[in-house]
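Students often ask why we bother predicting the structure of a whole assembly rather than each chain alone. The short answer is interfaces. A chain on its own may look different once its partners are present, and contacts between molecules only exist in the joint model. In this exercise we take four input lines together and write out one structure for the complete complex. Read the inputs first and try to guess which parts will touch.
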Amino acid sequence: MSQVTTDFNDRTIEYKQLLSDFRVLLKKNNLKFTIQREVILDTLYNSDEHLTPESLHNLIQNKHPDLKTGIATVYRTLSLLEDSDMVTSLSFGAQGKKYELGAKEHHDHLICTKCGTITEFVDDEIEARQRAITDELGFKMSDHSMQIYGICQQCQQNN
Amino acid sequence: MSQVTTDFNDRTIEYKQLLSDFRVLLKKNNLKFTIQREVILDTLYNSDEHLTPESLHNLIQNKHPDLKTGIATVYRTLSLLEDSDMVTSLSFGAQGKKYELGAKEHHDHLICTKCGTITEFVDDEIEARQRAITDELGFKMSDHSMQIYGICQQCQQNN
DNA sequence: GTCGCTGCAAAGTCTTTGCAGAGAG
DNA sequence: CTCTCTGCAAAGACTTTGCAGCGAC
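Now the answer. The structure tokens for the assembled complex follow.
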């Protein structure tokens, strides 16, 4: 059956698990576990929003003013996490990329072009059709993303 | 019925019509019809690829070496065309935006992460579900885009 | 003729990189 | 101790803007 879901409060992976995966990943690649990397992962985990490198950096500076995390480190860590498929990036419009933790279930995006809010949803029927289409064309799917642009209910009311 | 289509050789809008629409658009906004703008529209029309501003500029320089079209004009014209919904942009990965003429039928994209080829397709069932989902959530859809990433048949064989 | 357009180059953004000191293992 | 990380600032890549002359209407 098809169903629309926008509720992701019950994360599929707990933070401890996530952190442990991260440590394994780092060890496997001879990389070091640093405070900055942990703070970035933690901030991504505790944010329900899709973050730009800049907004992520701001969040971190507010929460950890003592730790002078540089924007370059944020970029470097996001690249690392993206390469390892721990985060996913979404690029839309002119304003560059937004990142989200990839540990949640797969989902698609509703993007409000007025307020910029991104809402997530999953539809089984669409997922099934995507598999059917790629099978039919002999295309080996590794990932997919769908964005629907428009005006969210909130913005329609405010207008 | 659902159907997969990858054949867009029969353009829904002829070039003359397109050009005429463009002239109307320009006149309506008190803008001028210049050689540069025509060449850009023509090059977009005659390309089956999704073009970056840079690749579009290169194509134009090769085809019209006499006309020293600047990259700035390409950017300006693409913005103009995008604002008027005559072209659509697709941003994915790190390499910035790619543009395509929006006069064709709506379609989604299969993107080969190996060779970079973009194949188009349309699926009625997915389109219908998208409408159903947005209706259900009270979201006023203006546009949507879907990308499926993976390895195309060609690249699988070459491997 | 007028007023918008163009190419050029300079200025902005956003992102990446080089480096020397700091810190994890 | 070693070798990677980090912050900083400088460099890059991509896009936009200011300007003076050019060209559509």
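Check your guess against this: Chain A touches chain B at residues 2, 4, 6, 91-93, 110, 112-113, 119, 121, 123, 125-126, 129-130, 133-134, 136-153, 156 (CB under 8 Å).
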